[in-house]
Amino acid sequence: MAENIIFYGPPGTGKTFFMQKMISDYIDYNIEDDTIRQTYMHNSEKWLLLALILLQNGHLMDSAEISRKVDTLNLRLTDYMPSDTLERHSTEQGGIIQRQSPQIFSRRNGKWFVDKAALFSYEHDFVKNYMSDSALNKRFEFVTFHQSFSYEDFVEGIRPTYDAETNTLDYSPKDGVFKRICKNASEHPENSYAIFIDEINRGNIAEIFGELISLIESDKRKGEANELETTLPYSKDVFSVPNNLNIYGTMNSADKSIAAIDIALRRRFQFKAFPSNSQILTDVLSQHRLDAHNIDGVDLVRLFDTINSRIELLLDANHMLGHAYFMKVRTYRDILDVIAFKVVPLLEEYFFDDLQKVQLIFNSLNADGELKEHAIYCHEELSPENLFSYTGEYDIEPVKHFFVNPDLTLESLVQIYQD
pTM of the full predicted structure? Predict the structure, then answer.
């Protein structure tokens, strides 16, 4: 049965990244045996050979099936055991086998498949380098909702197009992205299709979905027990949503527009939370042989959790920092850059009307409310007496000017969580 799922959480918790990984499951690769042979003869990398075989097959394969496929390619690999290569380049952690890069193979119910996100992350030009002669079949559409996105963009509408042959404008109804993917899914019921909607809460959902809001329910899909269909307003086509089309969306829980989500949409979607999680940060850094509790003397996990606890106390959990902000740090200077150029601007947006709370989050003030020596978020007082020689009848109060300390140090980071 088709899925309707919205992934939601604070910024930087990996919602879009997770959705991009899902997209790879909706791409078929038509790879010829000659392409695999030539690639292996040129590169001699066994992980590459097995990756192409698994991509060519498009489904899960056990070790015996992979071995038989290798034999049919006549590569003269005598006594070769694909299972050894699969294990060495597995995404699994632990075990007695020494893992090697790239770690791209995963197992499900004893059968192997390629983790496409890991593969394409390891080699960004993989398709260009090794599958340029292969045909790609996309079984998905990707769209980002925004305030001006409309029903005409999503389902169908009249959008004038110029016909060069007749030198006229064509005003016939044009299919939108959702109607196009529904047509493709209906024509190929043996395959699953998907539409991915980023920032789904940014658009006017009731207007964009229109009458289709009822048709997307799993039991109202084409071929299901309570099948529904409607006549579209522009083309007058009789339309229903196929039961092999999944709908996935992402939603930033820190976005104020989340409160405006249509109740009808809430009832028709599952909502899966992507919370901020320091354990994911620890696991990712450990893959790079880094201890998240000691990055050049900085306990990044404690720093991360402390900042988030203060944000939750001063605001709410929906505005906490996502672990993705710190996944690429390798030194304490990297952490300083993330704080100065990513975290501070975000917090300034959250607390735009009370910036002293940003100082509280970074523990930049002492018990007397004065700046600490290694404060991250500083201030200076702008006094009218120092800036004007004459103010006349104006009663101008002093104000605080806030800014990031230009001389951040290792101590600045440790100070966040130590006192």
Answer: 0.78
Least confident of 22-26, 181-185, 301-305, 333-337: 22-26
Q: Looking at the domain assignment, is residue 22 inside a domain? A: no
In a domain, 408, yes or no: yes
Instruction: Give φ, ψ of 367 to 5 degrees.
Output: -65, -20
Burial degree of 6 (CB within 10 A; 0-12, 13-18, 19+): buried
Of 67, 98, 133, the one marking the end of a domain is 133
From 225, 246, 273, the end of a domain falls on 273
Q: Which of 241, 265, 257 lies closest to 179, judged by CA?
A: 241
Q: By C-alpha distance, which of 301, 311, 249, 256 is closest to 274?
A: 249
Q: Would you say residue 17 lies in a domain? A: no
Q: Collapse the DSSP code of 106 into the 3-class scheme (helix H, G, I; strand E, B; otherwise coil) and give the result.
A: strand
Strand ranges in 16-145 using DSSP code E only, listed in sequence order = 27-30, 105-108, 111-114, 135-138, 140-144
Neighbours of 416 (CB within 10 A): 23
- pLDDT by residue (tens digit) across 60-97? 899 999 999 999 998 888 788 898 999 989 888 766 77
**What is the residue range of 42's domain?**
32-133
Our count of domains for the chain comes to 3
One domain for residues 129 and 46: yes
Q: So what's the pLDDT on residue 133?
A: 64
Within this chain, do residues 143 and 259 fall inside the same structural domain, yes or no?
A: yes
CB-CB contact of 189 with 196 (8 Å): no
Within its chain, how far is the Cα of 194 from the centroid?
Answer: 16
